[in-house]
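FAQ: What does the model actually see?

It sees only this:
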Amino acid sequence: MNVPKTYPILYSLRNCPYAMRGRIAIYKAKQPVSLRDLVLTNKPAEMLASSPKGTVPILVLPKQPGSTTEIVLEESLELMLWALSQSDPDDLLHSEQPPALPNMLGEIARFDVGFKQCLEQYKCAKRYHESTLSDCRQQCEVFIQELEQRLEQHAFLWSDKESLLDIALLPFIRQFARIERQWYLQAPYPKVRQWLNRYLQSVMFTKIMTKYPLWLDNREDLLFPE
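And it is asked to produce this:
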């Protein structure tokens, strides 16, 4: 597909939770980009030229008239905020409640540091059959219990309306649910399961998890969302 050069270029990895975040926000914003799927063992030189650190997602914005430099967004949350600043039809930023956004960003930062660290330890304990598996899971559960309590109060994590907090945490809660699947299905977190299933069974999730040809195989840019 010949995607217009005026579209931002998104370098993405299908199963990376951070890249998943970016695709969700772009989908929700209905903000078309030129998608370049990759694998981390074979990074495009074009991507590394734009962002030498070589992690995804990376969004390269078109050069503005008269400018010789390109703007590169290298952090998933930065990318999400950019997409939703272009268009936010579902009001995920809760623009009618100005204090909501900084408070949501604070919660996301807390989960990105605390929960992510616990999640990585939990994944490693499961992978290597370590005796600390239960302890690692319990450390994650501190955060999951908090989400369960939130969802007992309203339909989504911030309020009865979907928000940035929901789509930012979704990929990591999905990872948690997959580590010990049978345990998770019987765990005392029915609201979290309901919330997660609502996303996993949605058209949105099917679209953002579509498996595309790797960009380096044919260097053909794909329009996302279609």
